[in-house]
Amino acid sequence: MRAFISAFCLSACLPVAAQAQCGGDFSAFVAGLKAEAQRAGLSAAETNAFFKGVRQDGRVLKADRAQGVFRKTFVDFASAVISQNRLTTGAKMAQRYDAVFDRIERDYGVSRGVLLAFWALETDFGQVQGDFNTRDALVTLAHDCRRPDLFRPQVIAAAQLYQRGDFDPARTIGAWAGEVGQVQMLPADILRNGVDGDGDGHVNLKGSSADALMSGAKMISGMGWRRGEPWLQEITVPEQMDWAQTGLNHSLSTDQWARMGVRPRSGAFQGRQGAVLLPMGRKGPAFIAYPNFEVLFEWNKSFVYVTTAAYFATRLEGAPRLDPRAAEPGLGVEQMKALQKKLAARGHDVGPIDGILGEKTREAVQREQARLGLPADAWPTPALLAKL
């Protein structure tokens, strides 16, 4: 499920020589990886054993280029992945691993709802962990020249996990992008954040739920999670307000939001500072995103995925089902690509022209809406596309 790889490792992973090499003859490329693994501390015998039988996996490249699930709207995606069965199972897992979650909350300050949500969305509570050979997937992606600076260090990290007895290169399977285990972590993240939660002397994120949950909590904590603070809360917004103040790039005190007419849908505001989040514009669902919400983008870069996971986490901790309201119709994939091209032509950085409404595209949309005198709620509509 983590089709958008965390950028957390990009700068923090194991060091590589100036510019990661990629492409070219595959055998020569693997020879370069072997030399790098030995420089990282593996013996020649360990290196040869780790890379024995390595091959390119065409299915990995196909999956890497087909991430259309994140072109869904927030409501569509959330409706598809948050089922009553998952809510019921989440409650059962919270009870079954209550002692583990107590340790997590004590040691790392991460709320159980957040971990339960990622556990469910990543692998259906460990039931669907992927069927790609992890070593081959990582080597394939490192050889591919799209993101070698991310994946080459992961190959070396996997080799180091093998060296310490926590990775079987021939049998370890996981997601297409090299994530392993019940909460889907990359090898370098496991090296840095792996926790032996069940006390058996090994970090086994595939077979041990305690190891997986503790490791995931340590990683989230290291990303900057604020102990005991909220992350997302559903709100109601007035018919009219300064919509240009909304979005993740605008954070105000909850007192300021209250003066504009923003109200929690139930209860009181849970934090003192946050951003008003309108995933589908001013007429769709509305949330206040507290500082912990942005930490979750270190786990996954997809706006829709993170918003869904954060909302799911609140449901797992007792929040009511959201009010979907009546959002204005959005854009189809080709319309979104056309919009992104128009925004890029006007000098906005929207990232790849991929038909996905990510945060960069949202910010550009909001700026253009403000320029054109439209409600600047960052939700692109056919009317906006026509005006551009």
TrEMBL record:
Domain of life: Bacteria
Record domain Peptidoglycan binding-like: where: 334-388
Transglycosylase SLT domain segment(s): 26-313
Keyword flag Signal: yes
Keywords linked to the UniProt accession: Signal
InterPro entries given in the database record: Lysozyme-like_dom_sf, MltB-like, MltB_2, Peptidoglycan-bd-like, PGBD-like_sf, PGBDSf, SLT_2
GO MF, one example: peptidoglycan lytic transglycosylase activity
Any coiled-coil regions, as ranges: none
Pfam families: PG_binding_1 (PF01471), SLT_2 (PF13406)
Gene3D superfamilies: 1.10.530.10, Bacterial muramidase, PGBD-like superfamily/PGBD
Protein's recorded name: Lytic murein transglycosylase
Species of the source: Rhodobacter maris
